[in-house]
Backbone:
């Protein structure tokens, strides 16, 4: 059982290599920590490599090796360089957690004409996920196995209402659509693509008052360990399917 009480089947395969983007702090860092506890080699992606190295050092001695890698998901050259390095170094990638994010524009409204925040949010949440997934899918296809987990939010659900956070909401909604579309394309390939809402979590982004980051991260880690045949094209929170 996970920290959330989520049942992880005994048949869960042992992964060799995982990549988590936006992982030098907060939710991403905790996802890396929990994955490494299972003996997985985890690549800790960070825009600032020094911060990534500092984060990786905090996890020294974990059952699985944690390696900091430079990764800005908005930069195609960095994505391509990392994909080539993973291929040469490991020849495979089993788990991809698209966690890089931010851009929680709480005070912004849809009537504002300044699109810069929205463009930034889309570049990270949608296009960053799209860019990274496309670059690394060949390594999953090679072995007919993969788990892609896109960290999303119930703010992006079609039933979510509210007049704030327009860039964040819109970009997460677009991410949800991308998740379903990619999952449909890869149906039957052995590669499962799902979105996870970690809930309101007490991180720098979520602010105080949320639940512990370990709880939010546990739902993400659970989705990386779905047994074959795995559900795909689903939206999860705490191991339960929620509406798109």
Residues:
């Amino acid at each position: 059982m996970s920290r959330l009480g989520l049942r992880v089947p005994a048949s869960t395969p042992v992964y060799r290599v995982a990549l988590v983007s936006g992982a030098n702090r907060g939710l991403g860092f905790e996802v890396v920590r929990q994955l490494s506890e299972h003996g997985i080699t985890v690549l800790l992606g960070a825009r600032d490599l020094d911060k990534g190295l500092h984060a990786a050092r905090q996890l020294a001695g974990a059952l699985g090796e944690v390696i900091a890698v430079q990764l800005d998901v908005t930069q195609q050259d960095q994505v391509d360089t990392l994909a080539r390095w993973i291929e040469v170094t490991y020849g495979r990638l089993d788990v991809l957690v698209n966690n890089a994010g931010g851009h929680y524009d709480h005070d912004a409204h849809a009537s504002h004409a300044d699109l810069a925040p929205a463009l930034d949010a889309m570049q990270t949440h949608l296009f960053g996920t799209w860019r990274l997934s496309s670059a690394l899918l060949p390594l999953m296809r090679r072995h007919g196995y993969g788990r892609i987990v896109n960290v999303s939010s119930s703010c992006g659900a079609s039933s979510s209402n509210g007049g704030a956070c327009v860039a964040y909401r819109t970009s997460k909604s677009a991410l949800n659509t991308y998740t379903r579309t990619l999952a449909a394309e890869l149906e039957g390939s052995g590669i499962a693509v799902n979105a996870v809402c970690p809930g309101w979590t007490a991180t720098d982004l979520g602010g105080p008052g949320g639940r512990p980051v370990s709880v939010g991260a546990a739902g993400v880690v659970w989705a990386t360990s779905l047994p074959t045949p795995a559900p795909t094209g689903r939206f999860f929170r705490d191991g339960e399917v929620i509406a798109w």
Q: What stands out?
A: The longest strand covers residues 41-46. The longest helix spans residues 116-141. The chain has one domain: 17-241. The domain at 17-241 is CATH 3.40.50.720 (Rossmann fold).
